[in-house]
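ok trying again, last paste got cut off:
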Amino acid sequence: MVRHSKSVAGLSAAALAGCAVGIGLSAGAAAASAAHAAAPAPPATITARLIKRQPGTVKVGTVVPLSGLHQRIFINKRVGFALGGVGEAQYPAKTTDGGAVWKTFGPALHVNALQAPLSVTQIGVANAHTIYFYGSGQVVDTTGDGGKHWWQAFTQELSAAVVPGIGRRLVWFTQTSNSANLSNAVTWTYVSSDGGKVWRYTTALGGGF
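nice, full thing came through this time. structure:
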């Protein structure tokens, strides 16, 4: 009898624990749903602006000192891309000799101290023609023609990540939070098929890789 009672008590405790877990999961799901519900509707389309050279910034083809180079990505033994600092601004930088010499191949993407929302820290390369920068700010800067033109798309939220998608697509993840609590953050996904000129909101998982 005693063994049976202990068994019943154990089953009852397990059942209660299961209920508690279920309630916890339901509460978590409810909180997530509430966060999404409270978030403003994302814009259906974000159109980038053409980035032009600003007064006081260097010309395309200016040598970037090795000390000014940040993250670097090589697509083969000779050609590589990086974010390079020259003076008080950051530029897209490129090498064609394996990293011995780096030069700017676009206008300034961010000017220090003046354009905090426009700051970028990460680089991504889809191919020799499509290069992009993002991170820490509210923009993604892209080129789809190897640097002849650069486009800057701005979001009211945090520009969290950009990754290559199927074909020529780029997938951009932005993140919004309705309070200081980051657990309320909501991720919005945008896809561009034209090298970052126009971004369209999508609900496809992972941007429909």
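cool. The chain has one helix and 16 strands. Residues 115 and 205 are 32 Å apart (CA to CA).
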